[in-house]
Design brief:
- The protein is of the alpha/beta class.
- 37% of the residues lie in helices and 20% in strands.
- β10 and β11 form a beta hairpin.
- α11 packs antiparallel against α12 and α24 packs parallel to α25.
- The longest helix has 23 residues.
- The termini are far apart.
Length: 768
């Protein structure tokens, strides 16, 4: 149990906190916290900025205590350094995971394992089979869920008696959340480790703990039975703000929406400059359209994700609010977050990026990088272009730039207090949300440039990703020589390595920053003088197609037959390719898709390097555009050089595609698992769907006399999809007795596209 006034003595408690006070400068962060933890899992929940992460860091000795006591197994921790506290038997998984990006999964576990402890690498792999599959992958190559599993495993390998988890389910898909929830229940049942769970997901917090402590303004406001809180929605709204602000667009971070609400917080509304529309001012027509296009209630507080489908004025003239596409709990949190991101992008893309746009944004943390950002600004102005400076600082220092931090913070759905919380990591995250919410309301952006280290990169790139493809976006970063996938995502952000740190001006930094400024000025100047013609009255509708080297013949045949009536956009299925196509689907650029090559699902499920994320097919679920799909290249998992293949795949069938890419044939069991997952996703699509199964083979290597020819494995894939697929008048599964690269299969694909896109069929025949 977790109590504020326990009847048991502190000596009998695993953790006893009494009258704990912590300050950030003059800000009183923890204001007399009292908490007693005995055994099992104990949840502490509350809005952002209430002091939960501060509490965790204080327990671990990372923050100084002004007054109070923290006793662990009767021993006082206050005043001990962090390494001694960890050595007493407390494991900590911080918010944000903080893994070493260049170390593999197995290297993380080997370094973390305590000799003679009850937790070993083998036990970790049994607990998290996904990590066993990915043990040779670097941490930067893992999905968010896999990274969280690794972060928790690293703490467990210290054989702790108390495990502190700070928001472990944040940003994870429901299937991963379920796995972590089961782990916590198992840990409680084994009674060999107590868990302090800091969580904003009420469903998880109440499911794994007997009591829940609610933190408000730096205090434990109350402790109550989990069942009581879980069953009382009104109480959740009153204590935690659930359901408030649900009319407001969720903000965007790292390609995701976050709408945790803070309705009880009061914020002084800043007075914006005349050139900036405040968050609650009269809405423009574009903003009103955006409000009609999506509606996402708070998702972080609940596992239910209600995604409202886009309803254009042409489709809905009744004046009624769009209806939910699905209320199914299995719609992923990532899906809902992505839908908000892309709906906002779609709403602004028509007005935000055009030849007449004239303002370049220079954005960054002006409290620490004013000299460097000012140098970039001056270089661009010297080219005769207009600049507006945007300060992303979270220090609270006064700012004299065009758009100061307090103005950006007012665009956060939870108000400025959500941004200026006093916790650096949380403040950066929330400022990035506010900046993205601000930027999608601007209508005169010609380009955006930023410079800085990891913090500035995390602050600026989410807003860049919210902007349309084609608008110049440049990030000068100390991280740009490494893996930048998490920053670039599926859009056209240019990353430039700073060489030296972005700290002061010297002969190197001046040249690099000047090159970046001139590159931005050149892109914007060229767009204004000679705009690329991307649309016209006779513009052909966009058609997305997915291709891999082993399905090239099919896509080439299909595009040759459809290029007269469609603007065919082919996406290489290397993980990012699928996400890029789906971003354009969400943005309204594509009217239909031939998703022939779904191989990214293989790598996602089997630990390959070209992996999709859990939101694969999500754009089609959200938008309902006509969809023709197939199982192209689901016979292979992609690794890099042979030494990157996990050891547990030893003895499998491999093909060296080139010295840098090694292909592994999937088995019947793996194919069945993929078939189940794909069918489940297809069943969520409400638009017209035709999914084709090429019984003659799914890739160039899956053919007679080829290395991956395995009819039994293919049959397992086809049967799994067939058994789970829910046929409706709008959703059909078609078996085609041809190889995927045969002309007959291409003909079948086109025929089924025309079946669900009759207008384009008429256009094709008219042109013939």
């Amino acid at each position: 149990m977790a109590r504020t006034n326990s009847s048991r003595s502190s000596a009998a408690s695993t953790l006893a906190i009494r009258d704990l006070h912590v300050y950030y400068g003059q800000s009183h962060a923890l204001q007399g916290v009292d908490l007693t933890l005995e055994n099992g899992v104990h949840a502490v929940i509350g809005r952002n900025g209430m002091g939960k992460t501060t509490l965790c860091n204080t327990i671990m000795g990372l923050l100084p205590v002004q007054r109070g006591s923290i006793r662990f197994n009767s021993e006082e921790l206050v005043g001990l350094p962090a390494y001694k506290i960890a050595g007493r038997g407390i494991g900590y998984t911080p918010q944000g995971r903080r893994l070493w990006p260049d170390l593999s999964v197995h290297e993380h576990l080997t370094l973390s394992q305590k000799p003679g402890g009850s937790w070993t690498s083998e036990r970790i792999y049994d607990t998290f089979p996904r990590l066993a599959e990915r043990q040779r992958n670097g941490a930067a190559q893992l999905s968010g869920g896999e990274q969280q599993m690794l972060a928790i495993s690293r703490a467990l390998l210290q054989d702790p008696r108390l495990l502190i988890l700070d928001e472990p389910t944040e940003g994870l898909a429901p299937v991963i959340v379920d796995h972590l929830q089961r782990l916590l229940v198992d840990l409680a049942a084994q009674q060999d480790v107590a868990v302090l769970l800091i969580e904003q997901n009420i469903a998880v917090a109440t499911a794994v703990s007997e009591d829940v402590a609610i933190m408000v303004n730096g205090r434990i406001d109350r402790v109550m039975p989990s069942a009581q809180l879980a069953a009382d929605r009104a109480l959740q709204e009153r204590l935690l703000g659930v359901g408030r602000h649900s009319h407001e667009p969720a903000a965007i971070l790292n390609g995701q929406s976050v709408s945790d609400t803070k309705s009880d917080q009061t914020t002084a509304t800043p007075v914006p400059s005349p050139s900036i529309a405040p968050a609650r001012q009269q809405k423009t027509s574009e903003e009103e359209n955006a409000a009609d296009q999506f509606f996402v209630p708070a998702t972080k507080w609940s596992r239910e994700s209600w995604v409202y489908r886009q309803a254009t004025r042409q489709q809905n003239n009744s004046g009624e609010r769009p209806v939910p596409a699905s209320s199914n709990k299995s719609v992923t949190t990532a899906s809902s977050r992505s839908s908000v991101t892309t709906a906002v992008t779609s709403a602004i893309s028509a007005t935000q990026f055009s030849a007449s746009s004239s303002t370049i944004l220079v954005a960054g943390t002006f409290d620490t990088k004013a000299l460097e950002l000012g140098y970039i600004r001056d270089q661009i102005i010297a080219r005769g272009l207009r600049v507006k400076t945007v300060d992303l600082s979270t220090s609270g220092q006064p700012s004299s730039v065009d758009i100061p931090p307090h103005m950006l913070a007012s665009y956060h759905s939870g108000g400025a207090n959500a941004v200026f919380s006093g916790e650096r990591g949380a403040s950066i995250r929330e400022m990035a949300i506010a900046f993205a919410a601000w930027i999608v309301r601007q209508h005169d952006i010609a380009g955006i440039i930023s410079a800085g280290g990891s913090g500035a990169t995390a602050l600026a790139t989410p807003a860049m990703r919210a902007l349309p493809v084609g608008l110049p976006k440049l990030m000068v970063s100390t991280l740009a020589s490494g893996d930048v996938a998490q920053y670039v995502g599926p859009v056209d952000i240019t990353m430039m390595y700073s060489v030296t740190d972005v700290q002061g001006l010297n002969q190197i930094s001046r040249q690099v920053l000047a090159n970046a400024a001139n590159a931005m000025a050149g892109m914007v100047d060229a767009n204004q003088k000679n705009p690329v013609k991307v649309a016209s009255a006779n513009q052909k509708p966009g058609l997305g197609l997915t291709m891999f080297g082993v399905t090239t013949s099919a896509i080439q045949k299909i595009t040759s037959l459809l290029q007269d009536q469609y603007d065919c956009m082919v996406f290489h299925a290397t993980g990012t390719g699928g996400r890029s196509m789906e971003k354009l689907v969400d943005s309204g650029v594509l009217v239909a898709a031939i998703d022939l090559t779904t191989t990214e699902v293989c790598d996602m499920m089997m630990g390959g390097f070209f992996a999709a994320d859990e939101d694969r097919f999500g754009a089609f679920i959200r938008t309902g555009i006509p969809y023709v799909g197939s199982v192209g290249a689901l016979d292979m998992v992609n690794f890099l050089s042979p030494d990157t293949v996990p050891a547990h795949y030893k003895g499998r069938t491999f093909v060296e595609h080139n010295p840098q890419v090694t292909l592994m044939r999937t088995t019947a069991d793996e194919n069945a698992r993929m078939g189940d997952w794909i069918a489940e996703r297809l069943n969520k699509m409400t638009g017209p769907v035709r999914f084709l199964l090429p019984e003659g083979g799914v890739s160039a290597l899956d053919a007679p006399d080829q290395a991956f020819y395995d009819p039994a494995a293919d049959a397992a894939l086809f049967d799994a999809i067939s058994q789970r697929f829910e046929t409706t008048a709008n959703r059909q599964l078609i078996r085609v007795p041809h190889h995927i690269n045969s002309p007959a299969f291409a003909t079948a694909v086109i025929a089924h596209l025309e079946d669900i896109q009759p207008a384009q069929k008429e256009t094709r025949y008219a042109r013939l």
